[in-house]
Amino acid sequence: xxxxxxxxxxxxxxxxxxxxxxxxxxxxxxxxxxxxxxxxxxxxxxxxxxxxxxxxxxxxxxxxxxxxxxxxx
Length: 73
Prior knowledge:
Blueprint: H1 5-22, H2 33-39, E1 42-47, E2 50-56, H3 57-62, H4 64-70
Antiparallel strand pairs: 1-2
């Protein structure tokens, strides 16, 4: 919250690079669903502390319910 957009971009780039170069699995908890799903392989959607949806990130990004509630569409 409140991190400059350029810094957010740099952080995401480092997460992607770390994953690609080491194969390390990374757990990312992020409110920016668009950005998180764009770099994730798999995702979970939580609401009031409970997982309500899960699946491949590409599928979640295309899910109409997710798009309306979390992606601003």
